[in-house]
Design a protein that fits this description.
The complex is a heterodimer of chains A (about 600) and B (about 120). Chain A has about 600 residues and is α+β, with helices and mostly antiparallel strands. Chain A has 18 helices and 18 strands. The longest helix of chain A is centred in the N-terminal third of the chain and has 51 residues. Chain B has a domain of about 80 residues.
Chain lengths: ~600, ~120
């Protein structure tokens, strides 16, 4: 570049001759030079700005385009990733304690229609109505020929149905893959399983959401992809559950009961090995909840967990156990149970107005004396009785892992008077579920520790806080055993298993208030077996049973719930691996025979 | 010298391009293989789930009970009852095989002679 001098000699000399200031020329030239410099700098800056602008535009355009394609395209698994474990998106299986499947998934198809792609909507509607008798042909035709662009036809198809629809040959009928929940055992443990429904639905997939039972309680856990399909192991035992349901159903039929419930619980771990409620339903095809009538009459109602009943004399053992634990009485202590006995203005009576005279504590339990238990309750006092029952879990819904458990809130007296205390001591005035009772009996059976009933498999004993002394628990077990050998539950004897238990027959309260029914009872038998070292607690409850085999209809638990429970123990104890113990035969005794 | 360097660089660029081309295709092939395997694994997993479900369905207690009842004349299967527990000494084990000594004197003397 040729640099223009600031003071060109020729012009300076010329200016000097004319008498002008030569500095003006220099300033002028400097100005021109600065302008030139400024122009080049601007051009360069503009160029840089342009490049930068283009670069930013490209970057934003690429990012935007990528976002748009990601948003508009179907998600795909990355092809190249080194990590070995793959994500399992399906809902986890539910298995029993030995790994047998209780709930799993099945691939199936849903059927939907694109009416605008249909060639012969009339024929398609007719053929579909032929394949699915529950579909309304007129409605289908209206949907297919109207303005709709998309119609769901069926949510689940069997393979045969899919083939039949395929054979229609209508291009507007389309299939979408679906995963459905399958309960291969049908009605088995239906109340625990609950059921599922479809949540968010798309053409290519649909969410399976738990709608009740353990499916709903553990919904998030079962759907968690991080589990990689690891099944959820329950404490239930499939074979035991099947046997319990079978015996309970036949017992319910024989005893003409309208409902029945059974709970089998491990006394050390709190594991619920079997829990049944009849009538039942099929979780594969969960019925809709009833809109009329009492919800307690619906098959969906879980009597073992949601059903809160006054469980009658089965509570007496708690009163006796507490009295012995507090050191108020010993099993031999004599109590006068003669009438009259009035508490809070009410007469405390006995079953069929019997008069047992003076009884020991043991005999009070064996003969199930209301007045005897009532006197114990008065000795114990309100506060201590409440405290004891609270520790056994009778004040809260059971913590078992199904959503319905929250519905099993025990009904407690609003104010705990002496009369409440007395009636609750023999099982009236406090309503609780059979599962509550099983948990309470577990404390007696395991030597005095409260346990929490659970539906999940446990690694070992899960003792809670101690609620009574070992000695009181042991003495209570002796009493329970004697109820079977000498008392009201004589039908409860199962050879080899030393069953101990307590019967309870409670009149049903009228739904609209105003006392109790004369001819409707809840019969309960709560048992522990084997009584000398209990492993399991079994509670059998029959709703409105009546044994019509004798001359007069018999409703007491000793005639209804007890034989059912005994039959059940005979069936399930071997399945649980309990070896019958007939006692060691005495050789000398045998020789003398 | 410079020409030689140019030629060398040029040749190595061609060589690298050739190598990259091949590697690219190999990678594509491996990815396709992996995808196929993944699909196979998925299909097998699905099949396994179906088989498990089928197994569970066929072994449901209700069906087994019905089958046991249907085939009772042949199989005589009964529910498991407490009476079926036994003690070890109640089992009649097969008698131990009787060892026949054909030449007892020979045998007993044989041991004595050996050191």
């Amino acid at each position: 570049m040729i640099r223009t001098p600031l003071r060109p000699l020729a012009r300076i000399l010329e200016a000097r001759q004319k008498g002008e200031n030569p500095d003006a020329i220099e300033r002028e030239n400097l100005r021109i030079r600065h302008e030139q410099m400024r122009d080049t700098a601007r051009v360069r800056a503009e160029g840089r700005l342009l490049v930068l602008g283009v670069a930013f535009f490209c970057a934003f355009a690429i990012t935007g385009a990528r976002m748009a394609t990601l948003a508009a395209s179907e998600p795909a698994e990355p092809r190249a990733h080194t990590q070995g474990a793959s994500i399992v998106s399906s809902r986890a299986d539910i298995v029993d304690r030995k790994g047998r499947i209780l709930a799993t998934n099945m691939d199936t198809y849903s059927l939907y229609a694109h009416p605008q792609q249909m060639i012969e909507p009339e024929r398609a509607a007719q053929a579909l109505a032929g394949i699915f008798p529950d579909l309304d042909e007129a409605r289908l035709l209206r949907d297919f020929t109207g303005n709709r662009k998309f119609v769901w036809v069926r949510k689940k198809l069997s393979p045969e149905q899919k083939q039949a629809v395929h054979d229609i040959g209508e291009p507007g009928l389309l299939f979408g893959p679906r995963e459905m929940r399958l309960y291969p055992n049908g009605t088995l443990a239906a109340h625990v399983m609950g059921g599922t429904r479809f949540g968010q639905e798309g053409v290519h997939s649909a969410e399976v959401v738990g709608s009740a039972g353990i499916e709903r309680y553990f919904d998030a856990l079962l759907r968690d992809p991080a589990r990689e399909g690891a099944p959820l192991a329950l404490s239930l035992d499939l074979t035991v559950q099947a046997a319990v349901e079978r015996v309970l159903a036949s017992g319910m039929m024989l005893m003409n009961a309208k409902g029945a419930a059974a709970v089998l619980m491990d006394v050390h771990t709190g594991e619920v090995v079997s829990i049944a409620s009849l009538p039942t339903f099929d979780p594969n095809d969960r019925p809709m909840p009833p809109v009329t009538g009492s919800p307690a009459d619906s098959p969906l109602f879980n009597r073992a967990v949601q059903g809160v009943y006054e469980l009658g004399s089965t509570f007496k053992i708690f009163t006796a156990a507490q009295a012995m634990d507090l050191g108020l009485v010993a099993p031999e202590t004599q109590i006068d149970t003669k009438p009259p006995m009035r508490v809070g203005g009410f007469n405390i009576g006995e079953f069929r107005n019997k008069n047992y005279g003076t009884l020991s504590i043991e005999e009070i339990i064996i003969h199930s004396s209301n007045r005897g238990t009532a006197k114990l309750a008065l000795q114990i006092g309100n506060e201590r009785q409440q405290d004891f029952l609270r520790k056994l879990g009778f004040f809260e819904p059971t913590p078992v892992e199904i959503t319905e458990a929250q519905g099993g809130q025990p009904l407690l007296p609003k104010t705990w008077t002496d009369l409440s205390s007395v009636t609750i001591s023999y099982g009236h005035g406090l309503s609780s579920s059979p599962l509550h009772l099983a948990a309470g009996y577990s404390a007696i059976a395991n030597g005095g520790y409260a346990v929490k009933p659970t539906l999940l498999r446990q690694p070992g004993p899960q003792y809670g806080p101690r609620v009574m002394s070992e000695r009181a628990a042991e003495r209570s077990r002796v009493m329970l055993r004697k109820v079977v050998t000498e008392g009201t539950a004589s039908f409860g004897e199962v050879k080899g298993y030393q069953v101990g238990g307590k019967t309870g027959t409670a009149d049903k309260p009228r739904e609209r208030g105003g006392g109790y029914y004369d001819d409707k009872v809840i019969a309960t038998f709560a048992t522990i077996f084997p009584a000398h070292a209990p492993e399991y607690v079994l509670v059998v409850t029959l709703d409105e049973p009546v044994d019509t085999m004798g001359e007069k209809p018999r409703r007491t638990a000793g005639w209804t719930a007890v034989p059912v429970a005994a039959e059940m123990i005979g069936r399930i104890a071997p399945l649980l691996g309990l070896r019958p113990d007939y006692g060691v035969p005495d050789p000398i005794h045998l020789a003398s025979d | 010298m410079r020409t030689f360097l140019y030629i060398l660089t040029f040749m190595s660029v061609i060589g690298l391009a050739f190598w990259a081309y091949h590697e690219n295709y190999k990678t594509q092939e491996a990815l396709a293989d992996v995808q196929d395997l993944r699909r196979d694994i998925g299909a097998h997993r699905e099949r396994l789930a179906v088989l498990r479900a089928e197994w569970a369905f066929l072994n449901r207690p209700e069906r087994l009970r019905d089958l046991a009842e249907l085939n009772f004349p042949r199989l005589e299967l009964m529910p498991f009852l407490p009476e079926q527990f036994g003690r070890v000494d109640q089992i009649s084990y097969p008698a131990p095989p009787i060892i026949e000594f054909t030449d007892p004197i020979d045998l007993s003397s044989e041991g004595g002679q050996r050191p």
